[in-house]
Amino acid sequence: MKLPGPDHPITLEPAQTRWRAQYAGHVIADSNDAIVLREADYPQVVYFPRADVAMEYMSRTARSTHCPYKGDASYYTLLMDGQFAENAVWSYELPYPAMEQIAERLAFYTDKVEVYPVDDAEVNPHPRARAEDPAEADFAVTVDGVVQHTDSGSGNSQKEHWAANVSTPAETDDGGLR
């Protein structure tokens, strides 16, 4: 086990913005609780909490690697809409103590999965938390939730369909007039 230092600096910081990961045209991770890891001269890596990742599209593989600074990494393969990205996701489930902030979080290879920051004000301009008028707060609908429940162009919605919020009219014998 090696400790980060001047010869190999590693910093971990809570992300200052919301982050997403997109694969096969679908948002598979969306978080306001990401950790950004910067290591030496490598590109930064965004680690997402598992709770904010669509794990149903991933299966753990036998691949593992070792980093002398972080510990042992396990890998996941993505399968979505017939597209397959082998070992595209990794996680340090039991990292070394200096890296405990990334424990159980997931990171994505950016050549296989698009990882990008999101401006909350652009995708969610009227969240309930920002509404000052109680009537507006009751009316506000998060744009993001609606977008993720719509067709991405593949013929499938990105999230499970919402339950119906209407019921079938009762059968009446009104001669077809209503």
Mean pLDDT: 84
Classify the secondary structure makeup into a structural class. mainly beta
Q: What is the strand content?
A: 25-35%
Helix content: under 10%
**What pattern of helices and strands is seen along the backbone?**
EEEEEEEEEEHHH
Structure characterization notes:
Helix content is 9%, strand content 34%. With 178 residues, it is mainly beta. Strands 6-7-8-9 form a four-stranded antiparallel sheet, with no helix packed on it. Strands 1-4-5 form a three-stranded antiparallel sheet, with no helix packed on it. The protein has a three-stranded antiparallel sheet with strand order 3-2-10. Strand 7 and strand 8 (83-91) form a beta hairpin. The relative contact order is 0.16.
Spell out the key features of this protein.
178 residues; mainly beta; 3 helices; 9% helix; elongated
Map the helices and strands.
Blueprint: E1 10-14, E2 18-23, E3 26-31, E4 35-39, E5 45-47, E6 58-67, E7 71-80, E8 83-91, E9 107-108, E10 114-118, H1 120-123, H2 134-139, H3 143-148
Brief characterization of the structure:
The protein is mostly beta strands and 178 residues long. The protein has helices at 120-123, 134-139, 143-148, and strands spanning 10-14, 18-23, 26-31, 35-39, 45-47, 58-67, 71-80, 83-91, 107-108, 114-118.
